Amino acid sequence: MTTASEGTAKEALIDALRRRGGRVTSQRLVINEILRELGRHATAEEIRERVEVHLPNVSLPTVYSTLELFEELGIVRSFRGGDGVTLYDPRTDPHPHLICESCGVATDLEAPLDLAGAIEAAKGAGFSPRTADLVVTGLCHSCASQA
Ligand SMILES: [Zn+2]
Ligand SMILES: [Zn+2]
After folding, report:
1. CB-count exposure of residue 69 (10 Å: 0-12, 13-18, 19+)
2. At a CB cut-off of 8 Å and minimum separation 6, what does 57 contact?
3. CB neighbours (10 Å) of residue 52?
4. Contact predicate 74/17, CB 8 Å
């Protein structure tokens, strides 16, 4: 099962790796596929569990270093979720997040906030920005209704 978007994500990874002189390994390809398949925020541990189905014996440090590389390549973003856990986001354009302080779920917030503009302004101030984040913390709908 290969959709057009998965094919594109795979090509984007291969292109990015070649530009940097990085090797295209099955591990890297599978981790990238899992990220696109999940299509949501995930921890390295969750990603490793899914990768294991395809490639047994993939260690958590390998998953972390691959995700770090992907972040440098600009094909994944990381941000801090609830409890300070690092979440990986297959969506790479700067966008705000809602983080529930009770269950830890992190969702994208669709709001007209100019995070790309903040990055441009940072560059204008002589800063070398990596990313811009905006996080709204509180309670998600289901946790708030249980309170
Ligand atoms: Zn919640
Ligand atoms: Zn997101």
Report:
1. middle
2. none
3. 13
4. no
**121: Cβ–Cβ under 8 A, 6 or more apart, which residues?**
none
Q: How far is ligand 1, taken at its centre, from the CA of residue 56, in Å?
A: 32
Domains of the chain: 1-90 (1.10.10.10), 93-147 (3.30.1490.190)
Cβ-contact 13, 29 below 8 angstroms: yes
Here the tokens at position 24 are 């295209």
pTM for this prediction: 0.82
| pLDDT (mean) for 54-79 | 92
What is the CA(97)–ligand 2 centre distance, in A? Answer: 6
Centre of ligand 1 from the C-alpha of residue 137, in Å: 10
The alpha carbon of 77 and the centre of ligand 2 are apart by a number of angstroms equal to: 8
For residue 140, give the ligand nearest its CA: 1
> Ligand 2 centroid vs 60 CA: distance in angstroms?
22
Across residues 115-129, what is the average pLDDT? 94
Q: Are 89 and 79 in contact (CB under 8 A)?
A: yes
User: In the prediction, which pLDDT does 122 show?
Assistant: 96
